[in-house]
Amino acid sequence: MNPLGSTVRRPKVCAVSYLNTVPLIWGAVEGPQKYEIDLSFAVPSVCADRVAEGIADVGLVPVYEVDRLGLGWFPGLGIASRGQVRSILLVSKVAPDKIRRLAADSGSRTSVQLARIILAERYGAAPEIFSAPPVVETMLENADAALLIGDAALAIDPLDCGLNCLDLGDEWTELTGLPMVFAVWAGRHGVLTPPLEASLEASARYGLSQLDRIIESEAVRRGFPFALVEQYLTRQVQFLLGPEDEKGMQTYLSMARALNRDPAGARPAR
Fold first, then answer.
1. Within a domain: residue 212?
2. Is the pLDDT of residue 136 over 50?
3. Do 207 and 163 fall into the same domain?
4. Residue ranges in 80-164 assigned as alpha helix (H)
5. Is the same domain home to 170 and 189?
6. 190-211 b/e with 16+ CB inside 10 Å = b?
């Protein structure tokens, strides 16, 4: 219920609990938009399922799922990188071209498809991929490599983990010269309304105006070094998307479709 006592239904929005989502939803958690949005949390792949099933109106959905499910999406906001991203890591016991079995955190199907593209295009590898809980030691018991996303990837030091480490944001930009878009606000076309878009934009702008507060509080809450969180949220992750990001997204989707022989499906809300 909002402060005025209205019982008007608020849009159901599914977000992700990873660090990279916090600036986008800050207004919906700590600011004025908490009275405009009914917010819930899940891993990215589950957000996609909730939107597809009508449980959520809009979700922060991996772009591969946006395309596969034929969802619409709000342009201008999302989670992207323009080089190193740090939170999508492929760690391996062997050289990338020798990877035969890959254990993947199935929380984001976009990242799984990105790993397939990078390994095929840059290293000539086509490993068998299976899902596993995001614990690197366990994942590597039965695989040559592990794909980690979100906070599980941030918990690993790529320079001091004793494994080969590929940052898939960096690898994508090396391959294409383009940004990589990982997730966008997406939903069924009938629910992508201008008022909801305005609420999500306002929430993100509120968060980006309070990054110092977010960095300090999230470093403590998640047990990450302050410097890591600061660099991640201010330099490595991008939240406001432009034409070059959309070009990168469409290039990724085209390559993923070719890999899976899927038809085109993703369309912006306008």
1. yes
2. yes
3. no
4. 109-123, 136-139, 150-154
5. no
6. ebbeeebbebbbbbbbbbbebb
